[in-house]
Amino acid sequence: MKIALILGGAGIDPIFLLSVYSPSNLVICADSGAEAALEAGIIPDIIIGDMDSVSPRTLKYFRRKGVRIITDPSEDYLDIELSILKAIDMGAERIIVLGAWGNRTDLSLASLGLLCPENIPLTSTGEKVGIGFQGEIYLVTEQSIVQRVRPENRIKDRPGRCVSLIPLPYAHGIITQGLRYELRNSNLSFGETMSVSNYLEQGEVKVEYDKGNLAMIRYFDNIPELEEELRQLTGKSKESDEDGKYLEVLREVFHHGGKVPSTPEGKEERLSFTRNLLDSLCPSHDRIRIIHIAGTTGKGSVAHYLHSILSRRFRTGLVISPHIHDFNERIQINGGPIPHSEVVRLWNGIKEDISGMEESTKETVLFQEIILVLAFEYFRENGVEWAVVETGLGGRFDQTRVLSPAATIITRIGLDHTHILGHTTKEIAQEKAGVIRQGIPVYTSEIRGEGFDVIKRRCDELSSPFHAISPENVRSLKDCEGIGFTRDHSLFNIPHPGRHQAGNAALAAAVSKEIVGLDEKEIQKGLESAELPGRIEIRGRLIVDTAHNPMELGALFSTLEKCLQKGKRCVVVCGFSDNKDHRGMLKEILNFADFVILTRAGYRGTEPGRLKELALDLPEIKKVKGILVEDEPIKAFRVGRAISGISKGKGYLIVTGSTFLMDEIFNPDEGLRRINSGE
Fold first, then answer.
1. Which residues fall within 8 angstroms of residue 269, CB to CB, at 6 or more apart?
2. In degrees rounded to 5, what are phi and psi of residue 397?
3. FRET partner for 564 with CA separation of 20 to 30 A, picked from 239, 292, 377, 631?
4. pTM for this predicted structure
5. Which fold has domain 537-676?
6. In this structure, which topology does domain 3-240 adopt according to CATH?
7. Could you give the CA distance from residue 345 to residue 330 in angstroms, rounded to a whole number?
8. Tens digit of pLDDT for each residue in 312-364?
């Protein structure tokens, strides 16, 4: 069954939307419903409407994503009706409308009795001919479902229940006051121009049917019951059931946490074990050309930029760490995550070998080692020519150091993971510089300071060509929709805000040109199409960023000060993992936000009450007006939406901190959330 999900307004709760949405759904946004889709991070198939309630930034973003946008130029608009008719025209058999404004949506659906979907124009008198829609329509407003029933399903009105104004397809008469349609384009196959006008005045709307009843409305006492029914209707529940085997495999893979040796000698021996494991289970891994990336901040962005650029000409793999919602984000080819079915197949193919190696060596194969084996076996089977590989932690003893790259990238270095990597910039830089190999070119965005000195010295010791990359003439694009910069007299534009992203993009551009041999046009197109999940994602008035150290938070807020409308309330929802610089991060947040909501960041999350104690103890905090504590991340998010007033355009909501916090709030898959949290 083809199922269409129509978003009928900007005020739809994004958490509710994500909980019921299935990727297999056809998604059509009725005008401002595009803002709801953006806030939830969903890419619709079509946007229909006059676009007066959709921001230019949102439209530009979706155009860049290839979303079809149909503008209705008439004087009065029926965005939901047109969206429903478009869904019918595209073969939808079940249509679910999420309406932000219940009364308006109810009246809109009532008026559909005048229209037929199969390319049949109306006459001047409004007479209709042809065959009506035979499928199902459900309207969801607030905590209710209005169900459009088939004519043969006679449903009696129940005492205390409302009767919907949604017509069945066989209406033979309509009585109303002030209802008129003008069909200026008689082709209902929906070209790029559509126009239907509706004038509804107060008065009785009565729809009569050949077979009796209208429809029925059912009220739900709580949201979970409503969500469960909608998951059934959208096919979400079925998909979750089918992914049961995948979740079982993830539990087995995540079980391989293992313990890294505590001494440098032990860690070096462990790398020998990793190399033997990879050589044994994926002996052809060294045939793939590799670009290796380390650093404190920016390495994920550089990895995504490089992957996007190289994918324009080559079959290109990507290995990143960590993932945000789903393990399969860690292994990608040409922008597509490894399918769940492939993870299951590949794991079942190697787990006996891994068990045998564990038994013979008395060592537990590490989670990061399994990722390398799965990734490079998947890459081998799919003919990958280049692979972009990000380190997990550090560099000198990271499992990815066993690879032999064509080039090494080291991004900006700062204080993070100090309990493992060291307590000074110099110590951390020495760990990061451990990825440098004899004679292999090194590219870095460190252009001065202790980090620069450490990397340059190590390159000199190993006779590795050294390149410090810095973008020139960095400028913000119009309306803060990205960054422009030059390098070697070439101009590049990226659709991601933040001056720091210019440095990341410049690194990717330099390596793409000098190591891979791509031209400027290919590099520019790759930069334009790159996806940076969790990196200053501006979703309307919701901003999502996985900044989890003071350096990243400083870059985030420096960018937002230039991008956000002045005088609007800014609310920050944040949560952090243990072993982080909580004081440094809180200082950045409290000097930017009007209100802060502290919550728990899922797995290894710091208790929010403790964060509040630290916040109140910080001196010279000038900006913040209030600090709240809410232990449950989703509740914290909804409180933040209410305080910021983003659905009414009153302010902005920024969600930032640990990737585990993003997972707790925005991951609609309960099974994946449990696995990510260590259950």
1. 261
2. -120, 15
3. 631
4. 0.83
5. Protein-Tyrosine Phosphatase; Chain A (3.90.190)
6. Rossmann fold (3.40.50)
7. 17
8. 999 999 999 999 999 999 999 999 999 999 999 999 999 999 999 889 988 88
